[in-house]
Amino acid sequence: MRASRFFISTLKEAPSDAEIVSHKLMMRAGMIKRLGSGIYTYMPMGLKVIRKVEAIVREEMNRAGAIELLMPLVQPAELWQETGRWDKMGPELMRVKDRHGREFAIQPTSEEVITDVVRSEIKSYRQLPLNFYHIQTKFRDERRPRFGLMRGREFTMKDAYSFDRDLAGMQKSYQVMFDAYTKIFTRFGLKFRAVAADNGAIGGTGSHEFHVIASTGEDALVYCPTSDYAANMEAAEALATGTRAAPAAELTKTATPKASKCEDVAKLLGIDLSKTLKTIALTAETEADGKVTKQYFMLLLRGDHELNEIKAGKVPGLTGAYRFSTEAEILEVYGCKPGYLGPIGTKAPVTVVADRTVANMSDFVTGANEEDFHYTGANWGRDMAEPHITADLRNVVEGDPSPDGKGVLAIERGIEVGHVFQLGTAYSEAMKATYLDENGKPAPLQMGCYGIGVTRILGAAIEQNFDDKGIVWPTSIAPFELVLCPMGLDRSELVKEETEKLYAAALAAGIDVIVDDRGLRPGAMFADWELIGVPHRVVIGERGLKEGQLEYQGRRDTEATNVPLADIVEFIK
Ligand code: ATP
Ligand code: MG
Ligand code: MG
Ligand code: MG
After folding, report:
1. Where are the extended beta strands (E) located within 289-430?
2. Separation CA 379–CA 361 (nearest Å)
3. Residue 41 dihedral angles phi and psi, to the nearest 5°
4. What is the distance in A from the centroid of ligand 4 to the CA of 421?
5. Which among 18, 66, 103, 111 is least surrounded, fewest beta carbons within 10 Å?
6. CA distances from 559 to 302, 502, 545, 552, 554 (A)
7. pTM of the complete model
8. Ligand 1 atom with least separation from CA of 418
9. ipTM of the complex
């Protein structure tokens, strides 16, 4: 590629709505362009990375025996009604009507459609097992789209669906996918961890999430450094208490009257403050029928801070919201779903001093404005009643003994980039997807589903790999592997000639190379490529060439080194 024929558009400053580093850097590097809330154009430089991510995913999926197809974006409501998800999914499911008034969903995933394909195509046990996947646009009307590609509304996901005769077969298919995911994330060159996940609402028998490790991640991961134990916070909590997080109705007894001290609130909630100094708690008052009538928010911070009441008039059904004093020291926010918590009804940003969790804190500290409350009071109530919220009253902390008895627990933060799920027969039974077994008897198909957030991976990779100059892509997913920077291309025949030769040699060696022939000053040229995050840079200058030398600098190197012209391609490969 020649830079003059590609599209490069870099910015010195990130737009003000970009809160976290990956979003800022992707905007500055010209990889994405915002069209609307959670909706982005993938610009040429960003699309190159997406295509590389997709290629690795596709290769490993195919290698694992999965078969690619492509299911529609727009899916008839009737299918979604068969499984009950039309109602269950709530406002996150984007619904549209055609000219005849017929209803459709824009797919957030494709369980219904693939089950429909399989129930009409698969007759006999002889055709099993099967695993179908596609890499397709998804739409989820996220309550709070944010962080660029990290939590978009329109995004790209690879989703796969396995079909087996029995539980053992399904578990085998699951393991094959688990192993394929391990290979995929290893090839991306990212530090990641697979954690056991609670599969709560969907049911089924097992589930793991794959997380890219990053201090800005939304999720808390609990693991044991001296054993294999690893779980997300919700699953760790469920194990620690022996139960799933309490359903909303049970929260009634913890609903908090006006307490004025951290200790009082903790006592009311039955929290051991010596263990959970930094917990965020949420309580709700519910009616007997489970309807949430009142919501309370609290930040349980260090020390003995006063609770301040915040006016909550703007959200129907919400009568009270509390927080501790604003100047409190917040070291860590555990297990909270950012966006669920907020100084409700206030427009003015609240200053809370936070250090490394600023990205999480800012969600509810600076993010509270009218726009957050477009949805109805009823929806708000339902969101609040989601069981995982109560898991924030956690009793799993660093240093606790690991459930396997092989050490103590540590906690780190992660970004969910993949999720594998044993579905069992929930969908096949609802949709009557059966096959005929050896005795000619119909039996429901055993299913698994497996997602990878293709576009989210860009954000996650950057959160893990950046410096003050910009992005540091792992080579396998970098937009280009090598940039050639000729000095004085218009003045020196020698530079021009050697640049062309080197360009051809790199291409012949299979290196994804770009020549910067834009005629920029060296400083501006280098700054662009450091921002974009290309792993290898070679500067071609007349003086060096006369000595048979080129100047090489790896993206993480602090200075350049001379490499003999004859060796450069080998050196980079
Ligand atoms: P999250 O907990 O972040 O909302 P999820 O559990 O709802 O994600 P899944 O239904 O498990 O997501 O979907 C599979 C994968 O799709 C996730 O692991 C994630 O990588 C990706 N993904 C989900 N929602 C989004 C989004 N809004 N933007 C980008 N990627 C997403
Ligand atoms: Mg989600
Ligand atoms: Mg999740
Ligand atoms: Mg998930």
Report:
1. 292-299, 307-310, 321-324, 329-330, 353-354, 410-424
2. 23
3. -85, 130
4. 9
5. 103
6. 44, 22, 19, 9, 8
7. 0.78
8. 18
9. 0.99
